[in-house]
Amino acid sequence: MPKLTFIGHASFLLEEEGKETLVFDPFLNDNPQTDLKPEKVQADYVLVTHAHFDHIGEAYEIAKNHDATIISTAEIATEAQEKRHNAHPLHIGGKFSFPFGFVKATLAFHGAGIPGGHACGFVVNYYGKNIYFAGDTGLFSDMKLIGELTPLDIALLPIGDNFTMGIDDAVIAASYLQAKIVIPYHYNTWPPIEADPEEFKAKVEEKTSSKCIVLPPGESYNF
Ligand code: NI
Ligand code: MN
């Protein structure tokens, strides 16, 4: 049974016993929501949505420690390869199969944090389960297509406002995506992104058919 752990801020770990471990946007050292150190993250794949510090974080250090593969946009993957890390470049709309399943890069309306690039989100198929990780993004109506093209078990959505969707836009995103489970992130890390996840949960469960699970940092969900 796959296990998804919310490390804190926008960092998640996806793992299953005896299978590959994936880490998403591993921002650890300066992340007020976690004490996890990069040397403790034994990831095989490091997925990076964009190069803002709170997303690329310790991606390269983790990749180096464990000979992991960075999966990101072409611009970030190229930078990773220049630093002699393993990297697989993707770009928006593109999908590639890995031993655990596929990763597809999706639209995200946000800065790339690296010259010439574009931020992205990911749809990840992990041993038959589909997870959408929105990255940092505003609301966009093509999220409907993401849910239509790949029936989602879990949608991970930012709710902190200011830099990304806030609660009410993220509720609309949840209504577009129609995932079985919605999990919020990118909130309460710093004052500009304070948000009440219980308000988000109540609105999601009132206005959509999805169930919302609020994971405190460090907590896991098995699915
Ligand atoms: Ni960002
Ligand atoms: Mn961010």
List keywords for this structure.
223 residues; alpha/beta; 7-stranded mixed sheet; 6 helices; globular; binds nickel (II) ion; binds manganese (II) ion
What's the total helix number? 6
CATH architecture: 4-Layer Sandwich
Q: Evaluate the radius of gyration.
A: 16 Å
| Helix content, binned percent | 10-25%
Order of helices and strands: EEEEHHEHEEEEEHEHEHEE
Q: Between the first and last Cα atoms, what is the distance in angstroms?
A: 6 Å
Strand content: 25-35%
- Uncertain residue segments: none
> Shape from CA axes?
globular
CATH class categorisation? Alpha Beta
> Which fold name corresponds to the CATH topology?
Metallo-beta-lactamase, Chain A
Instruction: Please state how the strands of the largest beta sheet are arranged side by side.
Output: 6-5-4-3-2-1-14
Q: How would you sum up the major sheet?
A: 7 strands, mixed
